[in-house]
Design brief:
The complex is a heterodimer of chains A (350) and B (508).
Chain A: H1 2-14, H2 20-28, H3 33-41, H4 56-68, E1 72-76, E2 79-82, H5 84-94, H6 108-129, H7 142-155, H8 159-174, H9 179-188, H10 199-205, H11 212-230, H12 236-243, H13 253-263, H14 268-275, H15 279-292, H16 304-317, H17 322-328, H18 335-349
Antiparallel strand pairs in A: 1-2
Helix pairs in contact in A: 1-2, 1-5, 3-15, 6-7, 6-8, 6-11, 13-15, 14-15, 15-18, 16-18
Chain B: H1 3-14, H2 23-31, E1 36-39, H3 48-56, E2 60-64, H4 68-80, E3 86-89, H5 95-103, E4 110-113, H6 115-118, H7 121-128, E5 132-137, H8 157-163, E6 169-173, H9 178-187, E7 194-197, E8 205-211, H10 215-228, E9 233-236, H11 240-253, E10 259-262, H12 268-279, E11 285-288, E12 303-306, H13 313-320, E13 330-336, H14 343-351, H15 355-370, H16 379-385, H17 390-402, E14 406-407, E15 410-411, H18 415-447, H19 453-458, H20 498-507
Parallel strand pairs in B: 1-6, 1-7, 2-4, 2-5, 3-4, 5-6, 8-13, 9-11, 9-12, 10-11, 12-13
Antiparallel strand pairs in B: 14-15
Helix pairs in contact in B: 2-3, 14-18, 15-18, 16-17
Classes of the chains: A mainly alpha (350), B alpha/beta (508).
Bound molecules: zinc ion.
């Protein structure tokens, strides 16, 4: 039900502006300018990358099923609209679903790593507490392993204090969740001679469809990170686990390089020449930078009148569609300038 | 090295008190630098035969294995016991990580590697610079065309061996008929080879073969049996989907049994937890594919059920070999329904290219060559180009390479030999099909056997078997009514609140 709710929510934000593929790309966290821009444009930042391993076929099947149940209505090839029945369904069910926990774009990488480190840390500490050092780690991830090893080495001498502290923190943190959510999280943990549950087992125990389980676990992780950020002084160990994880949205690598060159005072065509890239690619980067950078100097790329004209068109046409906007403004105004203004207005709205 | 010293080493490195049958004998010959063929039944601790020498021998022990997940499991287990100079090289590794390992090969004592990787010129060159004390060929039956899992890559191991300066070879397998054994020794040029062949028949296993009308009837039978016998159970399936679906159905019918499924398509964390839960007696029953069980050493599995007909006796014998390793009476139950008879046949068709598509590929290759083109770099793209699945293309590629028609992704057209090659490859294909079908026929004959199932199961593999007086097989009068295994001890139900569970997990 959570997967359905997430798909419907995304689609109801996107309306009929994009094909259903846009929803899929947001959910799987596709790192393309278009998808990042969509995430901002339609206020779907929190769902970005929340179903990373969602199979395209599974997704398509889900969409078909939602259409058959009249929750989605197909309006054009690959374009869907959430029906009034669908909106009703969302309103009715969202209450008991952890929709508000998601913080996809901000926790994109951090959430994943935080969960892995925590799982491995609990397994390592509980086993070493029992003088058992030959256990099979449940997490097979180089960064998580390195981090836990370093942490363990550095804290070996106060080992007996660590577990009670970690217990206390987890207890208090989990108290902020529903019993069902806390139960799911605890059942997933592996300790000494006690291995955590698989997705299938969690699905059985909590009567969930299997596809919902990873979404629940991710939602809980994201909410944990949010709570930890708000009240970091209360949670020493847990805060430490996430302290070196970047929790701000990241630019794609290529856009970051463009940003650096822009700051050094290069023009678009200079950057394109230096990097042997097309100017259009650099324009894409600039739009991406504008989405993140609150102090982005839009005035470098258009005069005041152009800016006002585009804003006027957006307000009057009540649309975010590029093509319609382009038709509504003077011919000299470029697609790039319109996209830039859209990026800015979406930032300001937040 | 005296026996006492060997036993001391076993205790020191692996925490076992004594060797299992065959291990010490094989290790002694290996340490003397002899070529050794070891045929040890599943579950007899084959891996100790090279893991212990790897710690003792001065140079590197190279283990060729086709089973990537098994390699990874073993590396993990060895690292967990403190043996850190061990690594697994395979094509799925991160390239940077692989490069790092390749530049420091001498830092390792035991290196697992997949056969296709060991043939790469660059990699072989790095190995040539090292002292190789032992070349272990695991699953050695893959070398033989007569084996149930023939792998073309294995055929090139003789060349690899020569290039490595002819180190002593240890060839290991759990299921190899006498003719396959002969193929192994001959192909790897194992001069003066010492053979250790241990019988694979298991006195403590009872055999049941039962017909069921359809899937529903099978599931009803299984849930009845699982309800009556509360013991560790493994159920093998030939498809991931079925394993998953039956696990769900059984979980609904048997709420007081702890049930899970396992297959190669699951995410890593889930695979490790399910495997370890079963080892740890947190689970009663697992529905799995053949991906499960390799490298798993659980001694008290009481019942192994085959939900689908295995494609040949070899894999069946391996899979039932996971039951009753502690020597206690355990049961193998094979279920079949009339429609199952056709299922393995379609698998065979799935694994081999259709004769017609061989002709088509030949025509396409010629056209491509004349147009000055190459094959795509990616295997899956090439397979798609020829409208074959990847298993079919792998077979054909190996054949085309053998006849010098392709090298890498380049095509070498020679008009004179073209048609002959095509006929030869078609014959090869028909031979493989015939072999696979005859393996399947053996399996089908066995389930329809009226005589003792035990005698007829092992007759192709060894000269004799140990007969069993009581509880032999369904044809000798054995049924579940005669079976009285000790039930799994009732675990305390961890049904408390999450608060209690968290406290127990972290603070006890
Ligand atoms: Zn019998």
């Amino acid at each position: 039900m959570l997967l359905e709710a997430v798909i419907l929510t995304c689609n109801s934000h996107i309306k009929q502006d994009r094909t259903i593929a846009a929803t899929y790309h947001v959910l799987t966290g596709k790192r393309s300018i278009q998808t990042l821009q969509d995430a901002h444009l339609y206020a779907l930042e929190s769902f970005f990358g929340t179903a990373k391993s969602l199979d395209k076929q599974v997704f398509d099947k889900k969409v078909d099923q939602l259409a058959r149940e009249n929750l989605l209505r197909q309006t054009a090839p690959s374009v869907y609209q959430v029906s009034s029945q669908g909106e009703e369904w969302l309103k009715h069910h969202s209450q008991q679903l952890p929709m508000a926990y998601f913080n996809g774009l901000a926790c994109h990488e951090a959430g994943n790593l935080f969960a892995k480190r925590l799982l491995l840390l609990v397994q390592t500490l509980t086993n070493s507490q029992n003088n058992h050092f030959s256990f099979i780690p449940v997490v097979d991830h180089q960064d998580a392993e390195n981090w836990v090893r370093q942490f363990y080495q550095a804290n070996r001498f106060q080992e007996n204090k660590l577990l009670p502290q970690l217990y206390k923190e987890l207890y208090h943190l989990l108290k902020r969740f529903s019993d069902r959510e806390a139960g799911m999280f605890v059942d997933r943990l592996t300790g000494y001679k006690n291995y955590g549950m698989s997705r299938f087992q969690l699905a059985e125990k909590y009567s969930l469809p299997e596809a919902d389980v990873p979404l629940y676990l991710l939602a809980i992780t994201h909410q944990m990170l949010t709570l930890l950020e708000e009240e970091n002084t209360k949670y020493r160990v847990l805060t430490y686990i996430r302290s070196d994880l970047q929790q701000s949205p990241m630019l794609t690598n290529s856009a970051a390089i463009t940003q650096r060159l822009l700051h050094q005072g290069n023009t678009i065509s200079q950057i394109a020449a230096k990097r042997r890239l097309k100017e259009n690619t650099i324009y894409d980067h600039v739009v991406e930078i504008a989405l993140y950078d609150a102090n982005f100097p839009t005035e470098h790329f258009m005069d005041r009148n152009t800016h006002l004209e585009i804003i006027h068109a957006i307000n009057q046409k009540k649309t975010q569609k590029l093509k319609q906007l382009k038709e509504a403004v003077h011919d000299e105004i470029s697609y790039f300038q319109i996209r830039l203004v859209l990026a800015r207005t979406n930032r300001i709205k937040k | 090295m005296t026996e006492q010293v060997l036993e001391h080493q076993l205790k020191k490195y692996f925490a076992y008190d004594s060797f299992r049958p065959g291990q010490k004998e094989i290790i002694r010959n290996v340490l003397k630098g002899e070529n050794v063929l070891g045929i040890l039944p599943t579950g007899s601790g084959k891996s100790i035969c090279y893991q212990l020498p790897a710690r003792i021998l001065p140079g590197i022990t190279v283990v060729v294995s086709p089973l990537i997940s098994l390699m990874m499991d073993q590396v993990k287990q060895l690292r967990a016991t403190g043996f850190k100079e061990v690594v697994a090289l395979n094509s799925f590794m991160d390239p940077a990580e692989r490069k790092r390992v390749m530049n420091h090969l001498d830092a390792y004592k035991l290196i697992y590697i997949s056969p296709e990787l060991l043939q790469k010129a660059k990699i072989l060159d790095s190995f040539k610079k090292q002292i190789i004390s032992l070349l272990t060929v695991d699953e050695a039956h893959c070398i033989s065309q007569w084996g149930h899992e023939f792998r073309p890559d294995y055929l090139k191991l003789d060349r690899v061996k020569r290039q490595l300066g002819n180190p002593p070879v240890l060839a290991l397998s759990a299921t190899a008929t006498p003719e396959v054994q002969q193929d192994i020794v001959q192909h790897l040029a194992m001069n003066g080879c010492v053979r250790h062949v241990y019988p694979m028949d298991r006195e403590n296993l009872s055999f049941l073969v039962q017909e069921a009308a359809d899937d529903q009837a099978k599931q009803a039978m299984i849930s009845e049996i699982a309800a009556e016998f509360h013991v560790p159970i493994l159920i093998y399936f030939s498809s991931r989907n079925d394993a998953q679906e039956v696990a769900s159905a059984l979980a609904d019918k048997l709420p007081d049994r702890r049930i899970a499924f396992y297959h190669g398509g699951m995410e890593q964390l889930d695979r490790i937890s399910v495997q370890q839960q079963f080892m740890n007696s947190q689970l009663d029953l697992i529905c799995c594919t053949s991906a499960f069980g390799m490298g798993i050493d659980k001694s008290d599995i009481r019942l192994v059920i085959h939900y689908h007909l295995p494609p040949q006796l070899e894999s069946f014998i391996q899979e039932i070999g996971r039951a009753g390793r502690d020597g206690r009476r355990s049961v193998s139950l094979l279920l079949f329904s009339p429609k199952d008879m056709m299922l393995p046949k379609s698998f065979i068709q799935h694994e081999l290219p259709h004769p017609k598509s061989i002709f088509t590929v030949f025509r396409q290759l010629k056209e491509l060559f004349l147009a000055g083109g190459d094959l795509p770099h990616k295997e899956e793209e090439t397979a798609q180009l020829f409208q074959l699945n990847e298993i079919q293309w792998r077979f054909l590629r190996q054949q085309l390479e053998k006849h010098g028609m392709i090298k890498g992704n380049r095509i070498f057209y020679n008009e004179a030999g073209w048609d002959d090659h095509c006929q030869a490859i078609k014959r090869q294909r028909d031979e493989r099909e015939w072999l696979k079908e005859s393996k399947l026929r053996e399996m089908l004959e066995w389930i329809q056997e009226k005589g003792c199932l035990r005698r007829n199961l092992y007759k192709n593999f060894q000269a004799s078997y140990r007969s069993v007086e009581k509880q032999c097989c369904s044809n000798c009068g054995f049924s579940f009514a005669d079976w009285d295994p000790q039930p799994t001890a009732r675990q305390e139900e961890a049904s408390g609140s999450w608060e209690i569970k968290l406290k127990e997990l972290l603070l006890s």
